[in-house]
Amino acid sequence: MSDSRVANIVDGSARTLAHAISQVENDAPDAESLLEAIYSHTGSAYRLGITGPPGAGKSTLVNELTIRYRQADEKVGIITVDPSSPFSGGAILGDRLRMGRHYLDDQVFIRSMATRGNHGGLARRSQEVGDLLDAAGFTIIIFETVGVGQAELDVMQAVDTTLVVLVPESGDDIQLMKAGIIEIADVFAINKADRDGAGQLHHLIDQMLTHKEPAGAWQTPVVETSAARGEGIDDLYQQLQRHHNFLSESGGKEHKRLDREKLRVQDQVASVLAGRFWTPERRIMLDSLLGSASPYQLARDIVMAGTVDGK
Amino acid sequence: MSDSRVANIVDGSARTLAHAISQVENDAPDAESLLEAIYSHTGSAYRLGITGPPGAGKSTLVNELTIRYRQADEKVGIITVDPSSPFSGGAILGDRLRMGRHYLDDQVFIRSMATRGNHGGLARRSQEVGDLLDAAGFTIIIFETVGVGQAELDVMQAVDTTLVVLVPESGDDIQLMKAGIIEIADVFAINKADRDGAGQLHHLIDQMLTHKEPAGAWQTPVVETSAARGEGIDDLYQQLQRHHNFLSESGGKEHKRLDREKLRVQDQVASVLAGRFWTPERRIMLDSLLGSASPYQLARDIVMAGTVDGK
């Protein structure tokens, strides 16, 4: 890894950064050494996750919040994670267009990520891109997800603050997803709150929150917004700042960072072990045995065959 | 594993089956040996996956299709997979209520599954429950997902036929998710097709399908339905049967089964390797080193420390 490349990223070269992100996305051979080299420059950014059903207006909210963060002189990185495009990938042009106002601001960096056929790897990769932005001096990193499935929740597990955005129409669905949604939310926004049913949804969330196990002294606030009209955004921004301060003061931010790293070490170990294990011989063995016994038996047989010395 | 338990499942004891499913869901100590014992009784069921955005009417379609399958004297297992409830889990009562008509039919078995905190394990576990139903003589196993995220797509990767259900309102979203949706769909249903925009969506899907790489000689059909009115269901049922026949005749069904098993052997090997690797000593080592170097470095250090003899 050339030191100049790390230096360029840390100095804020947008071009080097964009290239580095592409390498991480594509699992390029030297992506890992690059991530390792920038590691000592990471850890200071605040990571905000925004999730909610499609059509909840998340992008518009991200746009409005970005305006506030920029007014506070923060440097904002935005990563839009789209786990529903797993097979061919490619960035979502639409988000860039919607973010047009910020697209010309060099203190705002916007990137959309799709799965590109790497099942389960999107959450990890989006974190790695977050690390690159962190090293490049972005002080706020916003992870915006499309949808509320498992992969999105995995992304949310790696942020400091999770904002869940719902709309009055989400009332019916929230029953289905209540457990996950209530647990992960640090802050709720009811967007498009000028529509019918906002009060009802607010009441429903409040009720569900009474059953939530408290994370320290934090009480999950519910904010009504209308992002398209610019209403409620200042309140939402304040609540997010409050949670950020709460985390910093309670030591929760450092705790979350170490939790993130622990998972990454474990993932990395699993990948090292699998890489060592699946030699060409074992792959051939698997193909030839497939269907001859249960997957459990085959797994045992193949592991045993590779450990004749009892290791 | 007692032989009588396996015999009871194969003989169709609903009570033994329900208990076995709970054990799989809870990762009970002898779940694996049970799955292994029933393995030789699996492989004949047809696995149908149904996915699509919330509110597309998937449950109503499942209900209508179940009526057809029952008329054809099939024994139908229905597994509703809900990856958006990862933290507390629990079955979705609503689905059972909606399926009320079939709930009293002992040739129909309905089960809802949530993630229960096992990240990434839901797809595997739902397959294992599918195996139990397969061994119990269910000839059609329907996997219905809530939403269209990564976890849902993982579930779909393990079925014979994937039905993607959209509604006219999905037109806006489909642009966002087109790659994944188009690739996985063997059959499309445009449900609630009496609403505005159905023709437009149909046209859009047809256009996107022209770019799809064909899977053998199969052309993905697009069927307009109105499940609530019972319209188009016979056509949809015919298309699903056609795909089933296509798979059986082309050898695709056996091919898919072996692909599924390959992934399961690999998962199982990874779990065996991780189980062996993460000794109490290494866990302590990880905790003590956390934060002292990059996750990549730590992973290498811990792997190296465990392999002093070069293994």
Question: Which properties best describe this structure?
Answer:
homodimer; 14 helices; 13% strand; alpha/beta; Rossmann fold
CATH fold title of chain A: Rossmann fold
C-alpha geometry of chain A: globular
Structure summary, number of beta strands of chain A: 7
The unreliable regions of chain A are 85-97
Distance N terminus to C terminus of chain A? 35 Å
Instruction: Provide the β-strand percentage band of chain A.
Output: 5-15%
The CATH architecture of chain A can be given as 3-Layer(aba) Sandwich
Radius of gyration of chain A, in Å, reads: 22 Å
Helix content of chain A: 40-55%
- How are strands sequenced across the largest beta sheet of chain A? 3-2-4-1-5-6-7
The number of distinct helices of chain A, counting runs of at least 4 residues, comes to 14
The CATH homologous superfamily of chain A: P-loop containing nucleotide triphosphate hydrolases
**Helix-and-strand structural type of chain A:** alpha/beta
Oligomer: homodimer
Overall structural domain count of chain A: 1
Could you please describe the fold and organization of this structure?
2 copies of one chain form a homodimer. Chain A is α/β, with parallel strands linked by helices. The first copy, chain A, has one domain: Rossmann fold (3-Layer(aba) Sandwich). Chain A is 53% helix and 13% strand. The first copy, chain A, has 14 helices and 7 strands. In chain A, strands 3-2-4-1-5-6-7 form a 7-stranded parallel beta sheet, with helices on both faces. In chain A, helix 4 packs across helix 11 (233-250). The radius of gyration of chain A is 22 Å and the shape is globular. Mean pLDDT of chain A is 82; it is low at 85-97. At the A-B interface, helix 3, helix 8, helix 9, helix 12 and helix 14 of A face helix 3, helix 8, helix 9, helix 12 and helix 14 of B.
